[in-house]
Amino acid sequence: MSPVFWILSAVTVFGALAAVTLKNTVHCALAVTIAFAGLALLFLQLDAQFAGFAQILVYIGAVAILVVFAILLTRGSETPKEGIFSRSWFTGMTIAAGVFAVLGWAVIQSVHVLPHQAEAPSATVNQIGDALLSRYVLPLEIIALLLTAALVGAVIVAMHEKGESK
Amino acid sequence: MTPLAGYLLVAALVFAIGLAGALTRRNAILVLIGIELMLNAANLNLIAFWRYGPHPELLTGMMFAVFSIAVAAAEAAVGLGLVISIYRHTRTTDLDEMNRMKG
Question: What's the number of domains chain B is made of?
Answer without folding.
Answer: 1
